[in-house]
Amino acid sequence: MYCQKCGADNLENAAMCQNCGGIFVYSQPTKTSGMAITSMILGISGFSLFWAFGIVSIIGLIFGIIALNRVNKSGGVLKGKGFAITGIVTSAAGLALVLTIIGVWLFINSATTFSLRKKLRMQSEFALTAQEGVKPGIEGWVCIINDKDNPERNCLKPLFTPRQVQSENELVISDMRCGPRGKESIKVSWQYINKENKADVYDFRMTMLVDEDFIGTSEKVIVYNGTEQVIFEDARRKIFIKSKK
Fold first, then answer.
1. Mean pLDDT score of the chain, rounded to an integer?
2. What angle is formed at CA 27 by the lines to CA 25 and CA 33, rounded to 5 degrees?
3. Is the N end or the C end of the chain the one with fewer CB atoms within 10 Å?
4. Which helix (H) or strand (E) holds 140?
């Protein structure tokens, strides 16, 4: 080893110069943290590995935190702080995205399940009174006059569809909502029950918004023979069946 002060040649790893007595100062070798680099790679590649997105992001986040802690405690011997921080940020962002996607999926799934359960509950309630295998034969329209002063808010729907009549197993169940879009003030559900003296018997169930704080419900059995039958009527609304002709 050559002395930087006098240029004399000394033994390798000597503590001081044998010629001038100068003390040698050795700098410790430095290296880049492999864990920090791995964390950065996992954080970035996680976006392309969607099938394992969450696992990759979690591993990248853990590696980044460990690597950053080791770099900070190494006294400058270990490098890679920037790599570790990049790995932490990208992994955390990926993990947050995964959690958001899972949350949205759970919300949609729960809403769909709730809607299906509600429909099945309505069918099971109606099925308690339905006569199995009997189908309606008199066509008609369920009409709702939601606002007698505003015809545009009125609604109508067929009592049943040809597919419902042709199906051997399907119960004839239907419903309709009427009112401003997104603010339906009336919901009517009905199911065909049986025949009575060549007439069709239906069970109608109604839910109506009476005012901003009260919702009224009612049920009525209607014997429909092809002539107009009033299901409900008050000063503002009217629900009835009319002939399809």
1. 78
2. 165
3. C
4. strand 140-145
Tokens describing residue 110: 């729960």
Tell me 212's DSSP state. Answer: T
Go through 41-63 and write b for each residue having 16 or more CB atoms within 10 A of its CB, e for each that does not: bbbbebeeeeeebbebbbbbbbb
Going from N- to C-terminal start, the domains of the chain cover 1-32, 35-104, 140-243
DSSP letter for each residue of 9-60 = B--TT-SB-TTT-PBP-PPPP-EE-HHHHHHHHHHHHTTT-GGGHHHHHHHH
Q: Phi and psi for 189 in degrees, rounded to 5?
A: -120, 145
- 157 forms beta bridges with 142
Q: What is the DSSP pairing of strand 31-32 with strand 78-79?
A: parallel
Q: Hey, what's the torsion of the CAs at 12, 14, 19, 25, to 10 degrees? A: 110
What are the angstrom distances between the C-alpha of 62 and each of 8, 69, 188? 50, 11, 56
**For the packed helices 81-127 and 34-45, what is the interaxial angle rounded to 10 degrees?**
40
Count of CB atoms situated within 10 Å of the CB of 183:
7
Q: Which residue has the tokens 């010629």?
A: 19
Q: What is the pLDDT at residue 194? A: 86
Please, what's the largest Cα pairwise distance for the chain?
Answer: 129
Closest listed residue to residue 18, CA positions, set 6, 29, 31: 6
- At 241, give phi and psi (nearest 5°): -105, 135
- Compute CA distances 2 → 17, 64, 108, whole Å: 8, 41, 74
